[in-house]
Structure to design on (692 residues):
DNA sequence: CTGAAAGCGCTAACAC
DNA sequence: GTGTTAGCGCTTTCAG
């Protein structure tokens, strides 16, 4: 209980038990602390000989600069926070991945928070995040409370919202219009001669918007919606299989199904095979997200492609522009292209 | 270029352009800064009336405590860092998810870093992370350089390694023996009467260890390995499909395939169907990871189940125990149970 | 229960 | 090029 926290710890080279700090390095190298700071942050302002001496001391002592202290002093954290609802979704995973890479490349560390789909306590989340004084923020979607929204404004740091394009922006924005995705999928399927439609969607704000866009377009064109089923987010393959079973009674005639995720589309296609429903002859299926699963399944599944990686890169570029001192611009809101990829299920 | 960074920003309630700090709140509430600090951190040591006044001031001014400053002063960051190679893998995604939940519940924020599979510059990674002075660390696997290893030791914070169990632990460890997984899968397939085997594996340290365990056991039992194919990490469905095509020439006789990931197993099963190879009659397939895909595919795929969520929870429990002041214990190394789930492909 | 003083480890700003 | 001084915004510690 009260024994030392770790007995496998080795005394640091300085012989002290406390982590080595900038003054230790300075003393070891025979320079002022400020010079050590310069060697680390602005090496070109220090003479080569001094640099060498300091570097040697740093290595010998195993000095790891305290970024907390540095950040407090310089009022820059060189850290940006990113918030996504999930990382299980390949789209978000690739956004996060490419965003992190781009930011790290520019000298910023990314700390990732996973907030889930139920907008639980966004105020507490933001308070914790902003309390660490990130230099910038990437957030997903826009289902935030007014108080949370206000916190972001008052934080006075660059903010980029991704994934959605419909709401009033806090600052910068990069995403697409989910209703239009639904509408375009509808148009695509109408163009294939369908007149009976079904929707299978997760109950999250954006997915519901896509479904609405789909239903509206289809209805306007005189089509019938034979099933409009919602499941709790996140999407699963199992939900796709169940959805198809729910659709079965309506499958006496040809029908086209739009799923809010490729996972559900895959589930529907699997279950269709099990149930003896022929795809695409009796049932057309279109997913959303262009997961590897859709491309590599047999039959490959028609879906909507989103450029996750390019979204992440663009988001990073937006933030870096601001962090470099540039002000707001006209093109601070950017449409991410999406595109229907036609495969064997339609 | 030189215009103000954001013109949509609203002056904060204090009327100043600088973020409100503890002294502002203190002044507004007519108390000392220390009292504000107590209201936030140890509310039970402040009288209800004072608390109310301070809370009101906090809300009115929109005060967001600067955790950077607090951390510097208290030498506690209430933050823990987690490092995983990828979040695309459902196993890691669920570990991260449950770990974050557990830690947040205990008042710690988790910042996630994705390091990839090529152990690029682990020293730089750790330096950046440790520079933020996390109170504890979760890391994946153990392919770290000696220098990086030394940094972790000298950081003198609790460290838990997950996912692997084979190496010398830095501190605490929770995982399983990958070689034994391979061996048990081999035993399972041998028990089904197989005598010809194939392995399809990603070229990452742990996957290779599983493959080795598999091959050794199979060979020792007198079985033949007809194919031992490696692909660059991470695993993909496409690699599974290609792997099966590579295996095709050997499929004149019955064969059992072990894949280092369910994604590859799925790819193999899909391609087998395309090629007219009957599963499991002509080819048995076993994956690894128990992704939803395996359970929900038709045919459902035999695989190895890993308790991702429980790994994350246990890792959190380990760290929290140490953070609460407890010293090392006997059971600081914990085996995570794994189990073969038999389904239709074997 | 509340306050005052001192300092966490670093860097901005200004000397030299 | 390099050093000195004075904080960054908070909490520890000790007094009341």
């Amino acid at each position: 209980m009260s024994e030392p926290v770790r007995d496998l710890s080795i005394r640091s080279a300085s012989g002290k038990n406390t982590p080595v700090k900038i003054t230790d390095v300075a003393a070891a190298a025979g320079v002022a602390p400020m010079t050590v700071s310069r060697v680390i942050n602005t090496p070109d302002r220090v003479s080569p000989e001094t640099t060498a001496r300091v570097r040697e001391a740093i290595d010998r002592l195993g000095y790891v600069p305290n970024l907390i202290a540095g950040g407090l002093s310089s009022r820059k954290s060189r850290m940006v926070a990113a918030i996504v609802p999930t990382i299980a979704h390949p789209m978000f995973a690739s956004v996060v991945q490419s965003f992190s890479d781009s930011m790290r490349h520019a000298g910023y560390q990314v700390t990732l928070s996973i907030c889930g789909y139920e907008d639980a306590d966004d105020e507490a989340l933001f308070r914790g995040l902003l309390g660490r004084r990130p230099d910038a923020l990437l957030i997903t979607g826009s289902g935030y409370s007014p108080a949370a929204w206000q916190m972001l404004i008052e934080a006075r740091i660059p903010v980029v919202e991704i994934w959605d394009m419909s709401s009033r922006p806090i600052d910068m924005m990069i995403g697409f219009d989910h209703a239009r995705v639904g509408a375009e999928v509808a148009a695509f399927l109408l163009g294939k001669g369908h007149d009976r439609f079904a929707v299978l969607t997760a109950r999250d704000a954006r997915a519901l918007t896509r479904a609405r866009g789909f239903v509206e377009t289809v209805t306007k064109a005189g089509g019938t919606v034979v099933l409009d089923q919602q499941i709790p987010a996140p999407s699963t393959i199992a939900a796709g299989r169940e959805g198809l079973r729910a659709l079965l009674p309506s499958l006496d005639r040809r029908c086209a199904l739009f799923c809010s995720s490729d996972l559900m589309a895959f589930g529907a296609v699997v279950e269709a095979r099990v149930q003896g429903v022929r795809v695409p002859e009796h049932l057309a299926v279109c997913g959303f997200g262009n997961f590897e699963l859709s491309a590599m399944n047999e039959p490959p599944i028609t879906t909507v492609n989103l450029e996750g990686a390019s979204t992440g890169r663009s988001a990073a570029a937006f933030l870096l522009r601001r962090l470099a001192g540039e002000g707001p611009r006209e093109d601070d809101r950017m449409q991410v292209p999406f595109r229907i990829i036609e495969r064997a299920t339609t």
Notes: Chain A touches chain B through 71 residues (CB under 8 Å). Residues 1-16 of chain A have pLDDT under 50 and may be disordered. The CA atoms of residues 122 and 144 of chain A lie 7 Å apart.
